[in-house]
Design a protein that fits this description.
The chain has 123 residues and is mostly helical. It has one domain. Helix 3 runs antiparallel to helix 4 and helix 4 runs antiparallel to helix 5. The longest helix is centred in the middle third of the chain and has 27 residues. The termini are close together.
């Protein structure tokens, strides 16, 4: 569980910081050509960074921060669902589906496993 939380934090922090500061690398992959204010980019990137920090908080104190893991799990399932929809409607590439969608699905499944077996997480 602890390794999974650290990996999820790195995954989210890396993705969030990429969206915030290197969006030009990601925009072509998701067919995003918005030259307006960066509100979308800042919100999405900021949310990813926030949940990266949340996974670190859960790593540090599972009992106190378990609700953050529940919210993160739901968000990860949502990330998979929207990327699958995007892929099926031809607006996202297979690469994005695999890296973003399936990556989030794997973490969501692992988190669900841990959340359903809380006794295994007791220190």
């Amino acid at each position: 569980m602890r390794i999974t939380l650290i990996l999820a934090a790195i995954y989210n922090l890396t993705g969030g910081l990429t969206i915030l500061f290197f969006f030009w690398l990601v925009a072509p992959l998701i067919h995003f050509n918005d030259s307006g204010p960066g509100l979308f980019r800042m919100f999405v990137g900021g949310t990813a960074v926030l949940f990266g920090a949340a996974y670190i908080a859960v790593f540090r104190d599972y009992r106190r921060n378990r609700p953050l893991l529940v919210c993160g799990t739901v968000l990860k399932y949502w990330a998979f669902a929207i990327s699958l929809f995007g892929f099926l409607t031809a607006s996202l590439s297979l690469q994005v589906l695999l890296v973003f969608g399936v990556g989030n699905l794997i973490f969501a499944a692992l988190f669900t496993h841990y959340l359903l077996r809380p006794q295994a997480l007791q220190p």
